[in-house]
Amino acid sequence: MASGWEWDDTLFSGAAAHYRRGRLPYAPGLADVLDRALRPDGQGRLIDVGCGPGTVALRLAHLFREVVGVDPDGGMITEAERAADLAGVAGKARWVRARAEELPADLGKFAVAVFAQSFHWMDRDLVAATVRGMLLPGGSLVHISDLKTETRSVDGLPHPAVPHAAMGDVVRRYLGPVRRAGRGVLPQGTPGGEAVVLSRAGFSGPRRHVVPGGQALERTCDDVVAGVFSLSSSAPHLFGSRREDFEADLRALLRAASPLGRFSERVPSTEVFIWGKDGPTDP
Ligand SMILES: C[S@@+](CC[C@H](N)C(=O)[O-])C[C@H]1O[C@@H](n2cnc3c(N)ncnc32)[C@H](O)[C@@H]1O
Known about the structure:
By secondary structure, the protein is of the alpha/beta class. The chain contains 9 helices and 11 strands. Strands 3-2-1-4-5-11-8 form a 7-stranded mixed β-sheet, with helices on both faces. A two-stranded antiparallel sheet has the order 6-7. The model has no long low-confidence stretch (mean pLDDT 96). It binds S-adenosylmethionine (SAM). Residues 7, 11-12, 49-52, 55-56, 71-73, 76, 99-101, 116-118, 121-122 line the site of S-adenosylmethionine.
């Protein structure tokens, strides 16, 4: 993790209740792409590390005998349990409150491990080594994130774009100019370059897939506000007693940007890297 920053358990504090509503979904073809790429036989087990409210584990549950989601945030685990119930898959889903650095030893072996926009929060060398040891021979590690290199114009869609830049200004007015994360700050953001880390841990590959996004979405002010509170950099706890004032200012900005209270967005494309447990020299 970035030098000078230390993980603490407030990182996503209060964000879970806003997560499903606020975050844009992964591209709709994600499960199909992984089904074709991984060819699971339906009998395997999947572990989703940094699972949040179960976003990816639940999207993939039909491809596995059991899915195990791990996350240190109690709110996220509660949301994941609720979502699994609603999806009718609670019987094959297990949720574990733990940091990836302290994965319980009794979780067993897995065919697939998923990290969806979570690996950058971890002690990556340690976690990569531990998870590699938890994969069965022939197993895969799947790294999932929104594709960062595309522009998602809303030209031609019925509502204005979400005023992200102006919203960032409001956040900075309350939280200061440097990106916040838990009890600390992250001036340089979270680290990239996971390919180096995963190669160093002995994984082979990767195979890259881009699952196409671009589908039009209509978002309400409530959705957009939830999106802000779902982020570690503007999680509810960071505003303390000024949270209501912040929300009022944010909503005033949104009303000015869209008097009808509707915004257009597009689903991001999803970038997937699939790594093999077994390096080229392994038996
Ligand atoms: C951006 S969210 C992604 C959630 C989910 N995977 C998704 O794609 O929607 C990042 C998640 O990583 C979790 N996380 C942060 N640090 C972690 C750690 N050291 N070990 C395990 N999970 C962690 C957070 O609690 C949060 O739920």
